[in-house]
Records
---
Amino acid sequence: ETGVTQTPRHLVMGMTNKKSLKCEQHLGHNAMYWYKQSAKKPLELMFVYNFKEQTENNSVPSRFSPECPNSSHLFLHLHTLQPEDSALYLCASSRQTGMNTEAFFGQGTRLTVV
Amino acid sequence: KNEVEQSPQNLTAQEGEFITINCSYSVGISALHWLQQHPGGGIVSLFMLSSGKKKHGRLIATINIQEKHSSLHITASHPRDSAVYICAVSKDSNYQLIWGAGTKLIIKP
């Protein structure tokens, strides 16, 4: 148990569906992250939020839309996804976005786009 | 070429064996992280180090800054150690982590 909770754990959606992934932490952390992990590839950083403000968007397609209503919650809204978007989506949080800050990860949401 | 390379990609060993996983990087770093990912997907941070050696239970992590190399060792390996072990580095220019592709470890009873 890392203190970072992601829901749902598994999600199957059609290409025309709209769904949202949720991440929650009550560790008092100020930074939250979305990562994508595709099979046999390193983790890819998608978005970074620091004190509810988005500070990084690593050229992520607009069909992925993040939302951070407060420092404890992070959402990833999904719409008109493609089959190649099927992956494990991991949320992480850290006390701050400093260089030597340890990140805590959620269990991930296994997304399948059909 | 990836900035963080791990070897081996896959490792199968018998219970009780001493395990070594290697990580080499080609950029200036402020810290190196070792993480463990179990089949369910969740990732747990094992170590964060910028010099020398750290030990936690049966796990030992070492780093050689001059050689840009780190190793993760597992002593008296156990089937529950089976997981993917990931090396990641914090570049000294910003906080973003650069991830290795992971080493899949299977420990057979």
---
Amino acid sequence: TQLLEQSPQFLSIQEGENLTVYCNSSSVFSSLQWYRQEPGEGPVLLVTVVTGGEVKKLKRLTFQFGDARKDSSLHITAAQTGDTGLYLCAGAYNFNKFYFGSGTKLNVKP
Amino acid sequence: ETGVTQSPTHLIKTRGQQVTLRCSSQSGHNTVSWYQQALGQGPQFIFQYYREEENGRGNFPPRFSGLQFPNYSSELNVNALELDDSALYLCASSLLLGPNLFGNTIYFGEGSWLTVV
């Protein structure tokens, strides 16, 4: 059972386009993390957000934590082929124990 | 390169058998969490070990058990394997400042692919 719902499940876009991925739950998190996972590898942490309403930027990636700490979004500006991968959000119910969403599979075409 | 090493990388077992998966945490980390990732799904939390004690468990049956050693490496044991246990098993290493005190970044290993036939 996934406690976190991610949407869309699949996204295929052209290089240069913008996109937003959403992560939603009915539960409140102490923190939320975003990961990127490539085939055959473990997830790699992109960002941790802790405060409701927090916005963090990582180059072309913008992460937002909802005011109520139940949802989050990841926005990518001018996507590149290197952004292709599975994007996972993970919410912490008890600090360091995380529950993951089922992921958004992003394919950026050249 | 995260400094988290898992072994074996791939293995095939028969239904009913037992398996042990191993994880070496990053140097300086005291906490290891185990996750199961089925094909096309996000990782599911199995349990966490903090300083050799279990520090939280997800919704997995008792046939999933673990250990953490004094050097903070860890093992995941699964008894009476079922076909649905086929998955990627991920180990995540981190430094906790206390059993419920968020420490630093979490690093994942590349996982152990288990196939049960």
